[in-house]
Amino acid sequence: MIKIFINCHSCESGNPEKIKMRKALMVIDLQKGFLCPLTKELPKKVKNFLLRNKGKFDLVLFTQYLNRPKSQFVKFLNWRGFMDEKENGLFEEIKLFVNKNNLFKKYTYGSFVDDKVLNVLKKNGIKEVWLMGIATENCILTFA
């Protein structure tokens, strides 16, 4: 789990009292294609984490990476993964937490290619973002 602070000023008013920061959890690309023997237990653990921490976050958002036939990954790397449900589908265990308002589909590693995610974070007054995902070097770091 990684925490990021967005433009955080805990004492702008000069009041030394600690201000409660609004928190979001970003569940990044928890998709079937990232499962392997080392991560096979992760879907159940993520579901349990989400259930145990229901009230801890003011907002829970999900991202889903989708590859396309004319993507840069195909064009330059000839990589054709994550084009179908078998690989790009979300873990069954997290689908009950996902809806059209909290799922952001993306066609590259980073989540800030457009302003959709950032706008939702700003609109909801989020100052602290926790990140959760599997492919740390591709999915998590490009978000952070």
UniProtKB/TrEMBL annotation:
Signal peptide: none annotated. SUPFAM superfamilies: Isochorismatase-like hydrolases. Residues 24-144 form the Isochorismatase-like domain. It holds the Pfam family Isochorismatase. This is Isochorismatase-like domain-containing protein.
